[in-house]
Amino acid sequence: MIVQENNTEKQDLDEVSLAENGTDEPSPRDWGAEVRRVAGPAILQSFAATLVFAVDRVMLGHAGREALASMQLAGPLEWSIISIFSAFEVAAVARVGVHVGAENDRAARQASRLAVLVALVAGALVAVATPGILHVLLQTADPRSSAGPLAASYLTSTLLASPLVFLALALTAISQARGDTRTPLFVAIFVQLVHLATNRVLILGAFGIPAYGIRGAGISTAITFALQAGLLATLAFRRGWLDEATALPPAISLGQQTPTRAEELRAMLAVGGPALGERAIYHTGFLAYVAMIAGLGDVAMAANQSLIAIESVCFNAADGFGAATAATIARARGAGTLHQGPSGESLVLSRASRDALALLAAAGLLAVVLREPLLALFGRDAPVLALGARAMPVLALAQPWMALGTVYASALRGVGRTRPVLGVSLLGAFAVRIAATWFFAYGMKLGLVGIWLGSTTDWVVRTLLLRRLVRQEFVPR
Predict the structure, then answer these.
(1) Are the CB atoms for 108 and 327 separated by under 8 Å?
(2) 2 in a domain, yes or no?
(3) What's the CA gap between 70 and 381, in Å, rounded?
(4) Does any domain span residue 196?
(5) CA distance readout (Å), 106 to 237, 244, 251, 382
(6) Is the separation of the CB atoms in 176 and 38 below 8 Å?
(7) Per the structure, how many domains does the chain have?
(8) What is the span of the domain harbouring residue 432?
(9) Which of 165, 336, 406, 446 shows its CA 20 to 30 Å from the CA of 35?
(10) Is 17 among the domain residues?
């Protein structure tokens, strides 16, 4: 389906075509180089974004076990809400990317403005729902632990800032869809430096300002996202990416009919709707998974938070490859449609999956070798350190599967194939992750090690199913 009908070459995922396509568009070899060019800054930007949460955990770990354990409640809930309601990112990358590839700038601007609008609406809905979310959190938290109230104090600031959080995510997606991953990277680096300073002041106290602990971490995180959204919006307007589409003549660009606003919105919802459903399903299962972790006690929750912070570096590296894959593959499809030339989409997928696999496998091995000093970054609680060290090899085992699964899913999303990914997530979140986690953690009585075995089983099954889908989509028979 991806390769045009007049393209007689059949490429497998690892083939590299050296033939010239006779147009000014990148050849398949150039598309392979393009995904690497986009991936580098995207990965670094994901690393920088991860620091918002990792730095919170490092500083809170030194503030006490209770503060770090509370992030086992706040962190997954916050991540789930952001992930579900930011499904518009998928639609933004797919629609803006294909318009950019087809050189239809008018349509790309229109899609960008709609993506921003949807992001602001979604963020406003979350902000309005914040009191209800916190009420549910406090009602379901263990009343014997202080983790619930501490988590609520953190989420109060971060959830109310959701419109700015989602705006930053939408603008990042638009930039990536245009092939510019450097701008989000530089902005992320700058705001992380600000985040370090505000964390130090608001969590631990400085310059006469009292220590606010986990509440200070929430305020600092909200400030960071607000600054990021402001900088990205300023740059997007200066570059004309969000200019009013109707002011741009004509309605036809390089022979391509520009959709009306209503048509574009329907197309975005057709892509974003299943993506939202996928994430809602996945995170519903994920929160049940988190509840099983909470049942293991504060030591397990604190140790798991240390492991999550370490794995988040690997996950965001995979996510960087995923962002590059989705954006580049969308532009490759648009370019192929415009010029009717050989497609580079299979090469994009091949290059991204190989690079992601190599990087995350190496990162997992490094995490095992350095597990003691890495875990010590999050505190000196001996039981927490010992439990985290036992689970670290399982974390490493999951990384290659995470790398491939993330790239495969992103490739499908990049061409608008969000419904099949929805089906895989439904199976993985409920039929695999919850069942496997319960079996290993409670049935086999492996505790936190079993928790990580359950999530790794999910990644293995998910990746194998996604590989089958991408072969059907990107390797015509």
Answers:
(1) no
(2) no
(3) 16
(4) yes
(5) 15, 9, 8, 59
(6) yes
(7) 1
(8) 28-474
(9) 165
(10) no
